[in-house]
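hey can u check if this looks right to u? its 110 residues, i copy pasted from the old doc so theres a chance i mangled smth
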Amino acid sequence: MKILLTGGAGFIGSHTAVELINNGYNPIILDDFRNSNALIIKNIEKIIGKEFNCQSSEIFFTSCATEANNSIITSVVDRFNINYIITSKLEHHAVLHPIQELERKGAVID
């Protein structure tokens, strides 16, 4: 199962990422580092004992613009054939609205 984890560099998201990885999943982490820091990703790597195996083409940086969030979420879900999304009701509506649309199209949201 491919999982998109929004806010994966925040406190709750990073802990969720570690648990997913420790349970054999390979989550795709989406975060704009608005309330976190890119160094969190390095800390996750230290906790799980390995570096993330990704290509530079798989790393997406966006600003806080609604259009960027919508575009990146739908593009990542399509590109990586994701059918399971973990998010928080605390996310900005620019993140929640595209996720709600994906749910209407059949994605499982948790």
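The longest strand covers residues 3-6.
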